[in-house]
Structure of Collagenase-like protease:
Amino acid sequence: MNNQKVELLSPAGNLEKLKIAIKYGADAVYAGVSHFSLRIRAGKEFTFETFKEGIDYAHARGKKVYATINGFPFNSQIDLLKKHIATMAALKPDGFIVAAPGVVKLCREIAPEIDIHLSTQANVLNYLDAQVFWDMGVKRIVVAREISLKDVIEIKKHLPDMEIEIFVHGSMCFAYSGRCLVSAVQMGRVPNRGSCANDCRFEYTLYAVNEDHGTLFRLEEEPGVGTYIFNSKDMNLASHLKEILDSGAVDSLKIEGRTKSPYYAAVTAKAYRNAIDDYYEGKFEPEVYQKELHTTKNRGFTDAYLIHRPFEKTDSQNHDYALSKGSYEVTGLVSEDEEHFLCKYKVYPNEDIEIFTPKDEALVECENEIGKIFKKENGLYYINFKKILTETGKELESVHSGNVNKIKLPGKLPYLTMFRVENVDETIE
């Protein structure tokens, strides 16, 4: 059984989100470059140069970066894949996340110094399959999302030296651990090669046909029910972390979401960081972590399959909408000089805006002609602008997300601190 503190692994869709995840509490991040990653859109956010910058940033802070090479290549791509593996290895990530057995073998040949983590796309559910990959040189297995905690424990009993990573939060695929062709059939975008169009999230209208005479008719539905027939709710296992960590079988807790927002990266990292730290300190307050997690955009939450078998679940699909807004809107992000912020929504003078800081950052109250930073009775810090001044001193009546000018702060705030306000309109997108 695992006696070390569990790792918190966050998504890094680009360099900014990599830094945010680390500042808000992640022990490690995962990211990719190019189409060999299963998130092409996120992979395009990184160049090899910025990926190296991210690795250096993480290593300087004692954190790790795992590079995703978890797509399923065609024969025509293998020579390019070999070059990609060598290029990525030269950047010195802490591990490769790989799905295909042939790619595992290739990575071992080209970059034997880099640890191999087996992607959830490999669908490992039992110790027999885990043993095969262990014998191939895989150090860690990211088990299938459909696995039970009981089976995770069983794998650990048979392979105590193999690291086990599980997903605890984020989007769920309609298909088995992402083995989906819906997007490929409808849009020509292949999910298992990184270009999923998320067709399962779409609204569908159902029809029936009489094959004898070809009559086609629309199936009438109760308004708002039964249209998003493939749309899985988002995984949220924060309330089950004590049970998971008590098992001693899990080495890493993984958050999904490389294409999600910087705010999502921040909130999920901080909430799960607090949950993990609280567990090891002998306290555990699920309602506190859930309150934060519910501020993010989501499709509704489910505890998925780790605690309950798939056939026992009746609430894992969201038939009503594709994505909700979440209860908060991000209005600003503090820049690297810690003296300005960039507007992400809209900011007006004389409004109290909550300050959401990276993990363990202390704030200093202040007040001057620009505004004030202060603490309310609820224990939270807020900022209120008397004036909205650009970096060059120009005064604005308000500032909106289209304005790229840096706005002066009344006092210094930690880099990547966010401002947020409650959504008064939580309608569905």
Observations:
- Residues 177-218 form one domain.
